[in-house]
Write a structure and sequence with these properties.
The protein is of the alpha/beta class and 249 residues long. The chain has a single domain, classed as Rossmann fold (3-Layer(aba) Sandwich). A hairpin with an 8-residue loop joins strand 8 and strand 9. Helix 1 runs parallel beside helix 2. The longest helix is centred in the middle third of the chain and has 13 residues. The N and C termini lie far apart (36 Å).
Length: 249
C-alpha cells in the first residue's frame, strides 16, 4: 500500500467489499454525489460500463464493488488524476477488471468506438462559465466548471458510444433540468428515470439523478425524493444504507 501512496495523499476505506481509494485534499476528492450515482446506476452481468470524467476513479471502483459487470473503464483528461486512479485500481488488485484511460471526453467516441458499452455514468461539472465560485486550483476548477467539456460534449459522445438500448446515468443540479432533459432527447438518450435529492425533508432538492436510454420510448418514471439528513443532522436510514452502513434505528 505504501508504495502506491504519494506524499500528501491518504487512503480512504469505501466500506464495501474491502475497496479503498487514494485521495488528495489538494485535488478533487469524491463526494456524496458519486456514491449516490453508483447506487442509482445499474450494471448487469456481462455488461461493460464507462465512466466519463472519472477523476481519481471513484465511480468504476464503486460500480465494480456493487455490480457483476464484465468490465469497467474510466476516461480522465487530467493525467495526474488518471495516474492516481490507476494506483487506486492497483491498490484493490483490479487491474484486469478496471482500465483508466487518459483522454478528452470530446474525443471519447473515437477513443472507445461506436456501440462499445452498455452503460455510461457521468458526474459532470455542474457550473457553466462563471457560475459558481471559481477555484484557483486547476484540478478543482475543471471538476466543477464546464472548462474542458460541456453537457453537449458528454451527451453527443455518449450517444455514439452506447449500444442500442444502452443506459446513461448522470448526477447533476436541478437548476439545469430543463436543459438536461431537452438535450438528452436531442441526442437520442430518452430520459427514463429521475430522482431528486433533498438535503432535508423540507428543503428544495440540490441534486438530481437521471437515467436515459439510447433509442428508448418516451416515458419517464419519477421516483420518490431521497432525503439526506434527519432534522438532527444525522444521515437518514436510506442514505446510510447507500453507504453500506448499519443503523440502530
Amino acid at each position: 500500500m505504501e508504495e502506491l501512496k504519494r506524499p500528501g495523499e491518504r487512503v480512504d476505506d469505501l466500506e464495501i467489499r474491502g475497496r479503498k481509494i487514494l485521495q488528495s485534499p489538494g485535488r478533487f476528492c469524491f463526494g456524496m454525489d458519486a456514491v449516490l450515482l453508483s447506487a442509482f446506476a445499474r450494471v448487469g452481468k456481462k455488461e461493460r460500463a464507462l465512466d466519463l470524467g472519472t477523476g481519481t476513479g471513484i465511480l468504476p471502483i464503486l460500480l465494480e464493488a456493487k455490480y457483476s459487470g464484465d468490465f469497467y473503464a474510466g476516461l480522465e483528461i487530467q493525467e495526474e488524476s488518471a495516474q492516481m486512479a490507476r494506483r487506486s485500481v492497483k491498490l484493490n488488485g483490479l487491474e484486469e477488471k478496471i482500465h483508466i484511460i487518459t483522454g478528452d471526453i470530446k474525443e471519447a467516441a473515437s477513443i472507445f468506438g461506436a456501440a462499445s458499452f452498455e452503460v455510461i455514468t457521468v458526474n459532470p461539472p455542474y457550473m457553466i462559465g462563471g457560475h459558481g465560485l471559481k477555484n484557483d486550483r486547476e484540478a478543482l476548477y475543471v471538476a466543477r466548471h464546464e472548462a474542458l467539456c460541456t453537457i453537449d460534449d458528454v451527451l453527443r459522445e455518449s450517444s455514439v458510444i452506447l449500444k442500442s438500448r444502452g443506459r446513461f446515468y448522470m448526477v447533476h443540479r436541478p437548476f439545469r433540468l430543463p436543459e438536461l432533459l431537452t438535450k438528452m432527447c436531442r441526442y437520442g438518450l430518452e430520459p427514463k428515470r429521475m430522482r431528486l435529492v433533498c438535503p432535508y425533508v423540507d428543503k428544495e432538492p440540490n441534486l438530481v439523478l437521471i437515467e436515459g436510454r439510447k433509442g428508448g420510448k418516451p416515458r419517464m418514471k419519477v421516483e420518490p425524493p431521497l432525503i439526506v439528513y434527519e432534522k438532527d443532522g444525522s444521515y437518514t436510514d436510506e442514505l446510510n444504507a447507500l453507504y453500506g452502513r448499519q443503523t440502530g434505528r
